[in-house]
Amino acid sequence: xxxxxxxxxxxxxxxxxxxxxxxxxxxxxxxxxxxxxxxxxxxxxxxxxxxxxxxxxxxxxxxxxxxxxxxxxxxxxxxxxxxxxxxxxxxxxxxxxxxxxxxxxxxxxxxxxxxxxxxxxxxxxxxxxxxxxxxxxxxxxxxxxxxxxxxxxxxxxxxxxxxxxxxxxxxxxxxxxxxxxxxxxxxxxxxxxxxxxxxxxxxxxxxxxxxxxxxxxxxxxxxxxxxxxxxxxxxxxxxxxxxxxxxxxxxxxx
Length: 254
Prior knowledge:
Blueprint (H helix, E strand, L loop, with lengths): L1 H23 L10 H12 L2 H34 L1 H16 L2 H12 L3 H25 L3 H9 L4 H39 L4 H10 L3 H29 L12
Helix pairs in contact: 2-10, 3-4, 3-6, 3-8, 3-9, 5-6, 6-8, 8-9, 8-10, 9-10
């Protein structure tokens, strides 16, 4: 309760400072609207059915990319972490993909996949891929050697070793990667909508900027922040379900 009270107080202090800055320095609403104007715009935004249409599009793009990143990131990370020849051959390509600016790839994705959901999902997946891959790779490399030797002495089959040793050892790392990936998946979806969107919250934010409805633009940003927080918290809560035995399952998520 003390931690929650401290967090609520910090948020309240942030809005008070925001209000004081706007009031005392007479900042134009076209530059930084007062927080109460943003709150009113947020309720007005939530009262529009179009908002939920755009919200559904953004969530579809984000979660679609996130799921692709989980599947391919986990598989590629485990394969490269456990098979030396694959690690030698393919890891430079994976790293090259990561260090390449993703925004520069968006025109190619649009060229290949069009202006629809597909290109935004691909952008989201590409951004979210590397955290899952890197942590899955680290998890595969971090299997306890002593436990591995016990399985070898016990002549455990590869499937049994994978199920009882590799998966439990890798899951804490993979879940950490997922927590980072869900944030990047949202960023990928919104950036894709900024660049080449015709729907979604990123597109809605662009429209509000063009119409100089700055309070509504801030409201869209707050809505995106709330969505990101909720998804991050949901992914973090998976620890209690999937690895209740691990000490990280009992840590405070926020």
